[in-house]
Specification:
It contains 11 helices and no strands. The protein is an all-alpha fold. The radius of gyration is 20 Å and the shape is elongated.
Length: 250
């Protein structure tokens, strides 16, 4: 049986060691129970995390052009803001990501057409698509909309967590540790041995190993911090977390 996250853990924003770091349920709570202003703010955060996955899903599921997929992704978020689908989300039944997939499946073609007609008639867009949306998906996901959505979702979570990790080490004046991790683990050109990294950065092999482990721990903590905003129990958290870690190799 899933254990609901304790309120003490959910409200914790910093401090000592804990199993579920930086836990808050503000994103989904804001979408479901907040004021109009709070819902718009929460939807903005949702858009940052899910616009690219939803864009890829629409591109593949309905064979849409990039421009049409962008328009339809905007329409989808407008529908979320104006409708009640998010209010019907029951955290104990599924992950928030899987629930969004269900909403997408029910986002029928006639709704797409109506939304486009509204915009052509002078309707106002609530959100606008960033330029970061692109059409590159791995070959394994290129023919499966749900795999493409999951792949893009994992990428967004990882990128956000990595940026937060980089910021944390910079704030702590420990940039050298993150630089070691970046050189050893994130280097896309070639995979270096610890000895090669040490020689390149002018440090020791033991320091390289230590720095990698320290950054890896913090990165995994940041990944959990991202995921915890759309899950309510430990079972869902661990399931989503395994999807990220298992695919990234971090």
């Amino acid at each position: 049986m899933s254990d609901r996250l304790p309120k003490s853990e959910m409200d914790t924003a910093g401090g000592g060691r804990r199993d579920l770091p930086s836990i808050r349920w503000s994103l989904v709570a804001g979408l479901q129970r907040g004021t109009v202003s709070a819902r718009r703010d929460a939807l903005g955060h949702l858009f940052e995390r899910y616009s690219k996955p939803i864009y890829h899903y629409i591109r593949l599921k309905w064979s849409k052009s990039p421009d049409d997929a962008r328009d339809l992704t905007e329409d989808f978020f407008v529908a979320l803001l104006e409708g009640d689908a998010l209010q019907r989300f029951e955290p104990g039944r599924s992950s928030f990501r899987n629930y969004l997939k269900g909403i997408l499946r029910n986002f029928a073609a006639d709704q797409f057409d109506a939304a486009r007609a509204l915009k052509r008639g002078g309707g106002v867009k609530v959100v606008s698509m960033p330029d970061v949306l692109h059409d590159v998906v791995p070959d394994a996901a290129a023919v499966d909309p749900e795999k493409a959505l999951d792949w893009a979702w994992r990428l967004i979570v990882f990128e956000r967590a990595l940026a937060l990790t980089r910021q944390w080490f910079a704030a702590e004046k420990r940039e050298s540790q993150f630089r070691t991790f970046e050189t050893a683990v994130l280097n896309s050109d070639e995979r270096l041995t610890d000895a090669q990294v040490a020689a390149k950065l002018g440090t020791t092999e033991s320091s390289v190993g230590n720095h990698i482990n320290v950054v890896r721990v913090k990165l995994r903590e940041m990944i959990r911090s991202e995921l915890i905003q759309t899950v309510l129990d430990k079972e869902q958290l661990e399931e989503e977390y395994r999807l990220i870690i298992g695919k990234s190799g971090i």
